[in-house]
Sequence to fold (473 residues):
Amino acid sequence: MQRLSAMDASFLYMETPTYHMHVCGVLLLDPSTMQGGYSFERIREFVAERLHLVPILRQRVVEVPLSIDYPVWVDDPDFDLDLHLRRLQVRPPGTRHELAELVGDIASRPLDRSLPLWEINVVEGLEDGCVAFVSKMHHATVDGETGTDFMGSLLDLDPAAPGPAPPEEPWTPERVPSDLGLLRDATVSRLRDPLRAVRAIGRTGRSLVGIGRGLSGIGTETRLRPALPFSGPRTKLNAPVTPGRAVAFGQAQLDDLKLVKKTFGTTVNDVVLAASAITLRRWLATYDTVPDRPLVVSVPVSVHGQRASTGINQVSNMFVRLPVDLEDPIAVLARIREETKDAKAVHNAMGVDLIQDMAQIAPPGVYNLAMRLVLDSALTRSLPPVQNAVISNVPGPPIPLYLAGAQVRGMYPFGPLIEGSGINITVLSNMGNMDFGVIACGDTVPDIWAIADGFGLAVRELTDRAHADATAS
Fold:
């Protein structure tokens, strides 16, 4: 039995019938490299022999009575792989659009809390002969970095790699604790560390002082002017979220982003944000709703290895303005370069523990209630959006990888949506490519492919400008 951290638990508390707190990923597999050819049974065998490498796959969440402490992970005594691994067929003709439609349907359904919080769908029938390996995991079980680690447990460096060593002993689930046992353990946990909230308040206070100094310019060379939550415009993207999800995906060349980075003195993440701003501006323009001021986007930042506390989710956050009010792509990139400098400075002043500490200040029951009030649709409609979108850039593998002998041709990630995040764009580097996934509320963004295709076109346009700049010089 292991207790969730405050941040991991927050993703459970945030979930509602419209805000699904799971993350999805699509691996496009080329079965031509599989020894003996493709079969679903081989995929199933492959997953089964790796379950012991990721213990959380056979654990489910149990709430503590009276919510006196955070929920715990316990072994599921009734674990059945066939409840989590499914075989699906994409409808003809099996293009990426039909695959995206199926993935959107998968992403639209919440996970069953009575089971371990994951599922894998093996999708056959794609027109190019590939097979899609579609994973769905609750955010309480995974973040960007641990998601990469999870895939590392499933993927090999060689198509003929032997399977992992079997566990020393067959898996025997631990006994599920009774309500009395959960209460007793939670009480002991609180008594052992009665000052956890006090320490969190202290660290939060110091972080807020650091942020205040940066915003006011006290003790710093320059006054920071970062983007702040609730400061973005309300746009067509920020309508109330309904349960249905629409997804689209694509691929750009990592060398193109690196060329733009080098030519204009930015970072790869700046280029990702600029391409996002360009495609979102053009999408908003089709509805004649381009705001006269920048969007504010949330950019998750991994803090694994930078903090003492434990937990699956170790992530911080920075807010960045996306200048959709500018038309020239290079002007957009230059503005974002300046915006991210201030955002990074504020993030450094904030400290890596602030979000986790804020989650620990309130008792779990109060925090649970507070999260639901914050996400209440009537309340959120009366306030400016916390942020207009979420944009993530996750490092991925630079070398070929294989699943059950099938080479991975694409890795497309899809994060969750919450209030204010009308769209989520996640980019993952993969073997010289930048694979990107776009997910949104289907009622708000029915033409999501315009944004996904537009992202690839924006990268191409920035690359062409970089080539032109290099030729001119």
